[in-house]
Specification:
elongated; three-stranded antiparallel sheet; Arc Repressor Mutant, subunit A; 3 domains; about 260 residues; single chain; mainly alpha; disordered C terminus; 6 strands
């Protein structure tokens, strides 16, 4: 079992499924214990140890374990007399990839099931309307194409497009994101990398950028200006002046 691949697969699984906080804590704890055992298919984990590592009560552990079992994330056998319970972690690496492919395939199939004239109408419905820039007769660009045009590290486009569309349509409002947020994040991330002179090998892959919601960190791009005994930060892409009304409040970091 590949630890990092499983962690990434679990993060992807959480994008499409709801899981309690205690369930997430228990899964990570069991993965850590399994790692220490050398990735045995079945391994022992004493309740007292698991409770201490997760911070769960006895009943909290029982409930979290049931959640993982119900979601087909683990298998569990009650320990025999004077022996710890036995766990098996079910790999998510293959199952998550299959789920993502299924989502995309279903979307494509639904589009192909439409009569040809409806497909054309769906694609070009805005052709004769004024687009967001006010130009008559032009077609708004595909949101992902615009995201991709700005993102600096162009790797695995197909996977990135799946993540992009999942964010747009995520059933959990807290995980959902707009195309504008992701595009702005890509633009500012590129500007920050260019400013810092970051080598390409240190840039985030686009799937990671979308998975981990890194675009949230680049909705505004910060510069720093030394001021008195602290640093005053402002949004350099909205303002060129330290006296601008766009200065964000509460962003003073004092020198020690």
């Amino acid at each position: 079992m590949d630890y990092m691949k499983e962690l990434n697969a679990f993060r992807n699984w959480l994008l499409m499924n709801d899981l309690t906080t205690s369930g997430i804590a228990l899964w990570h704890t069991l993965m850590s214990i399994n790692n220490m055992t050398g990735w045995k298919e079945h391994f022992n984990a004493p309740n007292s140890t698991v409770q201490r590592l997760t911070g769960l009560s006895k009943q909290g552990l029982v409930d979290a374990r049931k959640v993982l079992i119900d979601n087909n994330l683990i298998e569990y056998q009650k320990g025999k007399k004077n022996k710890a319970p036995v766990y098996k972690i079910i790999s998510l690496v293959n199952s998550v990839d299959q789920s993502l492919d299924q989502i995309v395939d279903q979307s494509v199939d639904q589009q192909l099931d439409l009569p040809a004239y409806q497909q054309l109408d769906h694609t070009y419905t805005r052709q004769d309307k004024t687009n967001s820039n006010g130009h008559e007769g032009s077609i708004d660009p595909d949101p992902f194409d615009e995201f991709w045009s700005h993102y600096p590290n162009k790797k695995k486009r197909q996977e990135a497009e799946k993540k992009f569309n999942m964010r747009l349509k995520h059933k959990n409002p807290e995980e959902r994101a707009t195309a504008e947020e992701m595009i702005l994040g890509a633009k500012n991330y590129k500007k920050q990398l260019e400013k810092d002179g970051t080598e390409k090998r240190f840039m985030q892959h686009p799937t990671t950028f979308l998975n981990q919601r890194s675009f949230d960190d680049y909705q505004t791009l910060k510069s720093e200006q030394k001021s008195g005994n602290g640093y005053l930060y402002w949004n350099e892409y909205e303002s060129d002046s330290i006296d601008s009304p766009f200065i964000e409040q509460g962003m003073i970091v004092r020198d020690e």
